[in-house]
Amino acid sequence: MKKLTLTGYILISLALQVSVLVIRLVGAVITRNDALLFESFHIITDITVTAAVFAGIKIANSTRGLKYSYGLFRIEDLVSLAIALIIVYTALDILISLPHSYAHSSFEAALFEVASLIPLLSSGLIKIRGGKVLRATSLVSDGYHNYSDVYVGVGVTVGLFLSYYTGQVIFYYLAVILAAGAILYTSISVGKDSIVGIMDLPKDKKVVPKIREIVTRNRDVWEIKAIKARWAGAVIFVELVVTVNSRLTIEEAHNVANALEDSLKSEIPDIKDVVVHIEPSSSKDKVILLPVDNDGKISETFARSTHYKLLKYTGTVMTGSEVIDVRPQDIVAEKNALRVLEIAKNKGVTDVITLNAGKIILSVFEFNHIHIWKAQSQSVDENVSLFFHDGLERLLA
Ligand SMILES: [Zn+2]
User: What is the CA(103)–ligand 1 centre distance, in A?
Assistant: First the structure.
């Protein structure tokens, strides 16, 4: 059973469901019991839903649908909706005739119903197993639906047995109403799902929060502006609008988009396509780092400085400042560039103003999109003012 394909799992479960139908239909004809008739109609719905799930997964994995921008996935929604309407109509029609229906051969009917539960339970098992192995969530939920039908079947059986043993016709009616209620519930939920899909409303309310959680984990995404998810059959199309550092190159921004697409598709297998719209951060916040000496003047060295001044600005208004001290024993020639970079990244530094900077530090900061500007004097205030008036020259590796 390990090597079974999707087609294999579905064909086995379809065969099991067809045997459920045969047992119930034969029973309904022999006993003329309406509870069995309802249960037969119910399994017809379920067989069609399974076939639609199969078609949906097949279409999702075929290249033929790709001729169209959004594939042909909504065929599944349209078919399900049509089935749901037919079944609701049929169920209501039979229900209307209930007062004229009699408890025919309840004992025999109960035996047929019990017999039909064995292939039904097996069908549920096969679908859940196959759906989990093949990561097809719609097949798993179809399997759980079979399980819930087994509970209904047990209820119907109990009602029919009680009707036979007690001679009370009320138990027969209860059994029929349970069967009719289950079929109405199924068709309404199938119909609701397809209408929701056709109208671009969320089929599963947990998906967007899950997408948000996955996107938030990406450190290059600064802000999530919009998450849109659209269902077509069982597949999901996602659109994202995210803000990234405006200093990223087009290639780097594209890599961020690819990384988001990959992680979303691998964690939510129903996602068919992700479109990422990248916006540059419009943030006017600047975090400026300056190496300073004991007197608070700009230090002659950058990587070997023991103090750093951190100034936060929104626009040209200072919103915070801080001094970072480095222990002299931490200053190790070959590790200085990376140590300073670590400070800058942890503090969200956007710009550095310094008198000097070595080749290594220039290139690692450039790689991390932190700009380095050449100070004109040792005065912090004077250079920050020049920085905001475009009066400093940028140092490049
Ligand atoms: Zn069902």
Answer: 23
